[in-house]
Amino acid sequence: MQVSSLNEVKIYSLSAGRSLPEWLSDRKKRALQKKDVDIRRRIELIQDFEMPTVSTKIKVSRDGQYIMAVGTYKPRVRCFDTYQLSQKFERCLDSEVVTFEILSDDYSKIVFLECGRFVEFHSQHGHYYKTRIPKFGRDFSYHYPSCDLYFVGASSEVYRLNLEQGRFLNSLQTDASESSVCDINPVHFLFAMGTAEGKVECWDPRTRNRVGLLDCALSSVTADAEIEGLPSISALKFDGALNMAVGTSTGQVLLYDLRSSNPLIVKDHHYGLPIKSIQFQHQLDLIISADSRIIKMWNKDTGKIFTSMEPEHAINDVCLYPNSGMLMTANEAPKMNIYYIPVLGPAPKWCSFLDNLTEELEENPESTVYDDYKFVTRKDLENLGLAHLIGSSLLRAYMHGFFMDIRLYHKAKMMANPFAYEEYRREKIRQKIEETRAQRVQLKKLPKVNKELALKLIEEEGEEQQITRKKKQKNLPSLLKDDRFKVMFENPDFQVDEQSEEFRLLNPLVSKISEKRKRKLKILEELEAQGQEEEEEPEGKASDAESSESSDDEKGWVEEVRKQRKLLRQEEKLQRRERFKEDQQTLLTPQFFEIKEGEEFRSFKDSAKKQKLMKTTLEDRLKLEEKLGTLNVSDTTVGSKQATFKLKKSEQQKKQQEAERRHRQERKTLRRPASHLKSKRGRGRLFH
């Protein structure tokens, strides 16, 4: 939980801190909470209070039990139950939601205006009905006495949909080319709409006639304001029977009394961004206006700033929980922010523990260190000649020193020490000493993995540097400093196994060099433990002995290979004996395999033959099939080749054909005696 303070108004950000991914198991979440202090200290007021990508609108039901939010991606609506502090349901939609309205006291009746000109109705069980309006909609309002929905958008008409009759009524014809926002007064039900020309038209729903017109674009222009274009209306909100607040696309908020065409007060956000939301706070007579960058709270009578908030991500919508000091925002981020401001009112009854938590934090305030202050000791003040400021308001006592303004510190330092020759001289001497130390043999820290390889690379680099100095060539980059090979010296999986067969056969001569390197490694480890610098060469043989050894290496190469092969054979014999002992100790259990119905088991050789056939070339397979008679290749008159294939018959097909052949043979044998008798009878009659 983060705490910020502006104008002595404390703002508690309840959604600050890292959020854990949904796919983590409960066990891993508990393990992370034990390790990470930030995760352990965070407050998750409502579980999974977020959207997959972006949240666009957020509202609270009239009974205060449900918080509903819409967002993307995919387009969806989520309902959160405040009594259970968790998500109640989630419903996905066909297209993105422009805005929505909760018609009932709970979540049982909701209307969504979607970007594809669709109007979707949801009941308690889910989707109920879907219809379409003629033009793209931008906002709508519900008129409770007549059950009418008023839609405004990319048209000069205001479309009316009666929910009692279930049909569209005659639309209202306005003078505007387009409309962006609308609202209905909760007291006398006056309908107001903001246009793209910067005007507000007021209509009486009973007579369906326009009763007023306000030119807010002209009134929003002040003496010190810079205008780049015609401001349009981007936000509209009624307060009681007579007050109305209007937000423009250039960042001004105008407060009107409906009895006057001139605004009571004009408040500029000074960011030039369109106003996204306007809310009224009646306990302190405040107006909460928000653009995509900042939320400002100011007095509606004087226009004086009460406090302000700048979230990390762009703001899409602001919702004030009724009769409390809780504020919720929909942002261009997955997480929806929740702020608690105790000055605005108490915490809601479903999270009353926030009052006790904030009281405890106020009782134990934490001291804060600011970036624009410099910490100095009494000795520093004496060197700067500012010791006489001790006890004044320019210094703030803290621990063993004082905090002072960084600008005052820089000015005093420049005046007290304009040239700083002594510091410059000390710096030059230190640089010379470091240059002389660089010529000595330095102790280099080796990595934990592949130490011998790293030492070999360091030695080779030293030799290459000497060659490049003589030839005046550019030094090549070091493998140890290259990020591509960094894992080879950090991950234990990349450790070179010197006992493997490949290493021992391919590197017979490396053994002597590796012995020297191992000695050097031991000396380096001893020096690291003792914290001493290596200024002399490590103990070893003289350079003459090394040169003689290099000549003997060629002679001893064959002997070294023979030794390694003998050792490998001995190790193989030992491994065979161990395997033989293990095989004698293990008991073999028979394994059974199930054959599918209609198939006969021949042998395991059939599968091996098939695998061999698949590995042979196409030419060999064609020759084999020609021998078997399943393939016939002939030349055509044109000069091309013609190949005729005969598909192999499966075992079932062969059995079926054999059964048919036997059946035909039986029928033939049955027909023969009958035909033979007929011929005999015929002959008898003829001769009779």
From TrEMBL:
Residue spans with biased composition (Polar residues)? Answer: 633-643
Q: Where are the transmembrane segments?
A: none
Q: Which residues form the NUC153 domain?
A: 482-508
Which residue stretches belong to region Disordered? 528-557, 633-688
Q: Report which superkingdom the organism of origin falls in.
A: Eukaryota
Question: The Nucleolar protein 10-like N-terminal domain covers which part of the protein?
Answer: 1-364
Listed Basic and acidic residues bias regions: 648-663
Compositional bias per record (Acidic residues), positions renumbered to this chain: 528-538
Basic residues composition bias: residue spans: 664-688
Can you supply a Gene Ontology BP term from the record? maturation of SSU-rRNA from tricistronic rRNA transcript (SSU-rRNA, 5.8S rRNA, LSU-rRNA)
* Cell compartments where the protein resides: Nucleus, Nucleolus
Which keywords has UniProt assigned to this entry?
Coiled coil, Nucleus, Repeat, WD repeat
Q: Which PANTHER family match?
A: NUCLEOLAR PROTEIN 10 (PTHR14927:SF0)
The family assignment reads: Belongs to the WD repeat NOL10/ENP2 family.
The protein's name is Nucleolar protein 10
Gene name, per UniProt, is Nol10
